[in-house]
Write a sequence for this structure.
C-alpha cells in the first residue's frame, strides 16, 4: 500500500492525534513546459489544492508565467522526445516490440526515470499528451504507481494519422492507464472505442480563469474591431478570417482586424491582407504575453477563429483563446471544428459556421458589426456560460478529484495492473 501521508495540518487517522493532514504527492510530466501556447498547464498546477507536486519535462521554456512556474520544483530531462533515426531506430523498435509500446523511451531514459520516481515517490503521475504517457507507462507499471493520461489535440488526431507506430502503441495501451482525461466530446468518443472503461474516461476541458478575463469598459472609437488570437499556422484558418473580414470591410469601412500571434504563415498572411487592400485595416501584433493578449481582447468587439481539419488529421481540441474571449464578453464567430461546438451555443453565445464557408462567416460578422445590442447580448451569454461550465477553478477541481481517486484506488489495491 502506498503511503499517501504528506506534510500539512489536520489529524492522522492512524492514532487519532492531531498530526499531518493526508496530501498526495503528484508528479506532472509534459513534453515542453512554460510555452505561451499552453497556459492551461501552469493554471492547473497552481490551482491544485490538496497535492504536493513536482514537474518533469523534456524541454523547459522560461518565457511564460515565470512567477507561477517558480512555485514548484521542475526537472528538465536530459533526453530528446524526437524519434531516433537510421539503424538505431530499428534497434529501439526491437527492444520495444515485446511490450507492444513502440513509443516508449530508450533504456537509458527509462533507467533515469525510474531513479527519478524512486526519489520523488509520487502517489500518482499526470502525463500531458499521449507520447509522454507512453514513455512513462512502463516505469509507472513496474513501480505500481497510477498514471493518469491527459490528451489534448494533435496527440489524438494528426499524430495518429502520420505515425502508425505511435497509433498502434496508444490504442493498445489506453486501457492500461488508471484514467484518461480528454478535452472534447469528439475525443471522448474515440478513446471510448479503444476499450477504456467509462468510469476511467473523463471529459474535462482546459477551461479559463474567468476572473482574470473579466470585461472592462472598452475605449470609445469608430468602427467595430475584430480579433483573432492563435498560432499563425494553416489549420487555425487566419487566411479565411482575413477573407471574411475583407467582405465585411466593404460595408463597414471603419472596421478593423487584429491578428495576435506569430508563426510560419505570418508573411503570407500579411501579403494576403495587402492584396485585399487592407494594409491599414489589419494589424499583426506578433506574439504577446498573457497580459498583452488580455489588453488586446479588452479593446475588441468580436472574436474570430476559423479552425480547420488539417490534411494531417489535426482537429481543434479545446479552443483556449475562444474561452478567454467569451470570458471577456466577446461574441465569437468560429467553425464547427473538433471540440469547439462544446464551447459555443450557436445563435446564443456566438455563431458556428462550417469549415471553409467564408461567406457564412462574413454574414455572421456583418450581423454582429451592425448591432451593438446583439454583440452585448451574445457576449453576456458567452461569459455566463464560461462561468457556469468552463471556469478553471471548476475544471482543476474535477481533474484533482480524478487524480485523488486514481491514487486511492491504487492504495486500496483495487487498481487493475
Amino acid at each position: 500500500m502506498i503511503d499517501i501521508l504528506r506534510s500539512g495540518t489536520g489529524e492522522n487517522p492512524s492514532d487519532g492525534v492531531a498530526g499531518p493532514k493526508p496530501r498526495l504527492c503528484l508528479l506532472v510530466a509534459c513534453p515542453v513546459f512554460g510555452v505561451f501556447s499552453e497556459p492551461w498547464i501552469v493554471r492547473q498546477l497552481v490551482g491544485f489544492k490538496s497535492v504536493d507536486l513536482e514537474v518533469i519535462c523534456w524541454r523547459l521554456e522560461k518565457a511564460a508565467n515565470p512567477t507561477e512556474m517558480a512555485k514548484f520544483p521542475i526537472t528538465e530531462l536530459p533526453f530528446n522526445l524526437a524519434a531516433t533515426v537510421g539503424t538505431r531506430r530499428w534497434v529501439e523498435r526491437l527492444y520495444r516490440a515485446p511490450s507492444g509500446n513502440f513509443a516508449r523511451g530508450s533504456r537509458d531514459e527509462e533507467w533515469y526515470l525510474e531513479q527519478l520516481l524512486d526519489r520523488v515517490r509520487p502517489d500518482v503521475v499526470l502525463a500531458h499528451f499521449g507520447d509522454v504517457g507512453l514513455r512513462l507507462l512502463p516505469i509507472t507499471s513496474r513501480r505500481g504507481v497510477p498514471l493518469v493520461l491527459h490528451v489534448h489535440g494533435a496527440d489524438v488526431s494528426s499524430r495518429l494519422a502520420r505515425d502508425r507506430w505511435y497509433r498502434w502503441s496508444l490504442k493498445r495501451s489506453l486501457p492500461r492507464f488508471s484514467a484518461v482525461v480528454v478535452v472534447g466530446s469528439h475525443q471522448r468518443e474515440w478513446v471510448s472505442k479503444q476499450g477504456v472503461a467509462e468510469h476511467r474516461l473523463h471529459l474535462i476541458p482546459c477551461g479559463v480563469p474567468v476572473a482574470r478575463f473579466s470585461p472592462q469598459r472598452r475605449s470609445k472609437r469608430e468602427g467595430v474591431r475584430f480579433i483573432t488570437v492563435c498560432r499563425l499556422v494553416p489549420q487555425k484558418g487566419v487566411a479565411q478570417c482575413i477573407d471574411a473580414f475583407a467582405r465585411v470591410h466593404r460595408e463597414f469601412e471603419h472596421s478593423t482586424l487584429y491578428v495576435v500571434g506569430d508563426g510560419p504563415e505570418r508573411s503570407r498572411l500579411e501579403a494576403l491582407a495587402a492584396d485585399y487592400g487592407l494594409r491599414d485595416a489589419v494589424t499583426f501584433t506578433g506574439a504577446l504575453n498573457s497580459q498583452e493578449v488580455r489588453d488586446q481582447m479588452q479593446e475588441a468587439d468580436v472574436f474570430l477563429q476559423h479552425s480547420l481539419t488539417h490534411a494531417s488529421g489535426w482537429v481543434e481540441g479545446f479552443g483556449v483563446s475562444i474561452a478567454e474571449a467569451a470570458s471577456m464578453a466577446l461574441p465569437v464567430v468560429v467553425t464547427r471544428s473538433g471540440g469547439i461546438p462544446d464551447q459555443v451555443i450557436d445563435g446564443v453565445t456566438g455563431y458556428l459556421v462550417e469549415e471553409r464557408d467564408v461567406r457564412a462567416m462574413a454574414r455572421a460578422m456583418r450581423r454582429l458589426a451592425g448591432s451593438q445590442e446583439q454583440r452585448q447580448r451574445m457576449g453576456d451569454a458567452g461569459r455566463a456560460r464560461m462561468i457556469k461550465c468552463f471556469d478553471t477553478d471548476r475544471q482543476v477541481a474535477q481533474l484533482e478529484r480524478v487524480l485523488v481517486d486514481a491514487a486511492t484506488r491504487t492504495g486500496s489495491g483495487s487498481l487493475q495492473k
